[in-house]
Amino acid sequence: MNIGEKILQLRKKEGMSQEELAEKLNVTRQTISKWETNQSAPDFEKIIPLCEVFNIKADELLRGEIEEKDQTDDKIIRKKTALKVSISVFLYFLAIIWLISMSTNTWLSEELMVSIFLFICAIATVILIYHFMTLPKEEKEEKKYEWLDDLITLAFTAIYLLISFITMHWEITWIIWIIYALVLEIIHLVLKVKESRNEK
Question: In this predicted structure, what is the pLDDT of residue 66?
Answer without folding.
Answer: 47
